[in-house]
Amino acid sequence: MSRNRLISAAMAALFIGFGGSGAADAAGDKLVVGFSQIGSESGWRAAETKTAKAEAEKRGIDLKISDAQQKQENQIKAVRSFVAQGVDAIFIAPVVATGWDSVLKEAKEAKIPVVLLDRQIETKDPSLYMTAVTSDTVHEGRVAGEWLAKQTGGKCPVVELQGTVGSSPAINRKKGFDEVVAKNPGMKIIRTQSGDFTRAKGKEVMESFIKAENGGKGICAVYAHNDDMAVGAIQAIKEAGLKPGKDILVVSIDGVPDIFKAMAEGEANATVELTPNMAGPAYDALIAYKKDGKEPPKWIQTQSALFTPDTAKAEYERRKDAY
Amino acid sequence: MIQRFLPLIVTSAVLVVGFLLCAAQFPNFASLRVVGNLLTDNAFLGITAVGMTFVILSGGIDLSVGAVIGFTTVLLAVLIEQAGWHPAAAFAAALAVSTGFGAAMGLVIHVFRMPPFIVTLAGMFIARGMGFVLTTDSIPVNHPLYGVLNDVALRFDGGGRLSLPAMLMLAVFALAVVLAHWTRFGANLYALGGNRQSAELMGVPVGRTTVLVYALSGGLAGLAGIVFSLYTGAGYSLAATGVELDTITAVVIGGTQLTGGYGYVAGTFVGVLIQGLIQTYITFDGSLSSWWTKIVIGALLFIFILLQKGLLAVWTGRGGETAEA
């Protein structure tokens, strides 16, 4: 037992001994940004990370990225580590909307500005973050729904592949789409389930939808909360012996290269683009803030454009390297 | 005597050397803030790992703990936000439910002589499923007591803080050391894990010990769920997925033998900190893929199991010699 105690005493001495030192900033004048990324669950997410790196390089910013592997506890740990490290700003792409107050309070106490990327959080104290760079995800769902309503004359039984349960894009993309459905009595969501934003889950859930709906005969269209799930669904439709894009229309959101490829091949019908360049506007806001203390608006909104097969080929060529 | 403690010494050395290496590379690493963060961020893992240590010492395994944490966070959020309970009452209810859940699994394991792996695997699915039945959304808990509890902390210079979850974890570890080494229950546990049959012959109450140890593990997972709920201020049915594997890893890296009967609670504490340290290092570096955490942990796990195996071989070899001589 005494050996035990000896070790713990030695460790304690070590911690305290080092406690005082360690204020020096290794990076010098360069802005250091810590980015807590959700993970790399989709092609879009990977592109966001890649773009964040490229845009940081352009502006001479030292970017530290931590991949949370889809877990909030990892994100909270990462944010705490960034605070401990004394970075100049923290970017978070929050995996869920809730539960950020206490760690953001620590960042605020350390006077480190926080920028939310591509997703909002739920908090009673909006001063905990400086700004949020997001698209209007409700609007994205609406754009997708309106396209489908127009295309089918407002008559269409839809199956829906939802995103990660409880995440704000899943909630909002559903909400926007539901608004359109409510306005068109001929449109109905006959089945809806989470495909967790992944290809594999999207395929699996679509398979079960097709089985449940009499081999897919009752389905007019599939609405997927992201392109990756749509790509998985296309696979499932093909394996069921149906033609994706014709027998079952495919509409999704994000605008990743693979969906443009699918559209060029006639297997998907529309996508609403969510630009992966979220970090760029965030850096600009941060640089302006650091220079003259100018607070950016609380919400920096990005565009949501709809793309259809006629431009798909060109768009694919333009995008495939960015991802 | 030194061999008995060797796994623990090696583990502690890995932690100290690892910390020194990190500190040498990043000037801000060796600060009380980082140490405080390590304790706070891994509090729920540490508390769960204590229960897991006891279960593994008794020769079993508990795969349900991560799911129980997730379920507890949802139960708390639903009780507090939707049913209007006071958090203290909700905490008590959550502890009672999780302890009862663990005890029920222990009972099934003992009465039906079922392998703990299967029973607790079923428990994992049941607990995770119950969370989803309660709600599929992530529900924020806005009760003012949560804010108050989250602000409870011993503050040190340079932004370091010992938060309530960290204090709770340290207290749980302290109590666990006493329970393991200075009580009848602890002695029964080691006996049961060492050899069930001889424990039975020695008059160890096998049934009671089994039920108690799973109840303890369930209860601690419930406590970890409360800590997790404070930590994120929300209930989410997907919370703490895979934590059962992280805790088993912490226990094994801490020098406890997966076959039971041998190990120390203190080692588990070090095992938890090593995992946290690796994660912190990778965040500080900022360019490594966070999946390196898993790779390094996997490698460490492998090395420690080999070490245990080697030590075991050496001991049994020696034991044989003395018997002959």
Automatic annotation (TrEMBL), chain A:
<keyword id="KW-0762">Sugar transport</keyword>
<dbReference type="InterPro" id="IPR054837">
    <property type="entry name" value="YtfQ_transport"/>
</dbReference>
<feature type="signal peptide">
    <location>
        <begin position="1"/>
        <end position="23"/>
    </location>
</feature>
<dbReference type="InterPro" id="IPR025997">
    <property type="entry name" value="SBP_2_dom"/>
</dbReference>
<dbReference type="InterPro" id="IPR028082">
    <property type="entry name" value="Peripla_BP_I"/>
</dbReference>
<comment type="similarity">
    <text>Belongs to the bacterial solute-binding protein 2 family.</text>
</comment>
<feature type="domain" description="Periplasmic binding protein">
    <location>
        <begin position="33"/>
        <end position="288"/>
    </location>
</feature>
<dbReference type="Pfam" id="PF13407">
    <property type="entry name" value="Peripla_BP_4"/>
</dbReference>
<keyword id="KW-0732">Signal</keyword>
<keyword id="KW-0813">Transport</keyword>
<protein>
    <submittedName>
        <fullName>Simple sugar transport system substrate-binding protein</fullName>
    </submittedName>
</protein>
From TrEMBL, chain B:
<keyword id="KW-1133">Transmembrane helix</keyword>
<feature type="transmembrane region" description="Helical">
    <location>
        <begin position="118"/>
        <end position="141"/>
    </location>
</feature>
<feature type="transmembrane region" description="Helical">
    <location>
        <begin position="6"/>
        <end position="26"/>
    </location>
</feature>
<keyword id="KW-0812">Transmembrane</keyword>
<feature type="transmembrane region" description="Helical">
    <location>
        <begin position="88"/>
        <end position="112"/>
    </location>
</feature>
<keyword id="KW-1003">Cell membrane</keyword>
<feature type="transmembrane region" description="Helical">
    <location>
        <begin position="262"/>
        <end position="284"/>
    </location>
</feature>
<dbReference type="InterPro" id="IPR001851">
    <property type="entry name" value="ABC_transp_permease"/>
</dbReference>
<protein>
    <submittedName>
        <fullName>Simple sugar transport system permease protein</fullName>
    </submittedName>
</protein>
<feature type="transmembrane region" description="Helical">
    <location>
        <begin position="63"/>
        <end position="81"/>
    </location>
</feature>
<dbReference type="Pfam" id="PF02653">
    <property type="entry name" value="BPD_transp_2"/>
</dbReference>
<feature type="transmembrane region" description="Helical">
    <location>
        <begin position="211"/>
        <end position="231"/>
    </location>
</feature>
<keyword id="KW-0762">Sugar transport</keyword>
<feature type="transmembrane region" description="Helical">
    <location>
        <begin position="296"/>
        <end position="315"/>
    </location>
</feature>
<feature type="transmembrane region" description="Helical">
    <location>
        <begin position="162"/>
        <end position="182"/>
    </location>
</feature>
<feature type="transmembrane region" description="Helical">
    <location>
        <begin position="38"/>
        <end position="57"/>
    </location>
</feature>
<keyword id="KW-0813">Transport</keyword>
<keyword id="KW-0472">Membrane</keyword>
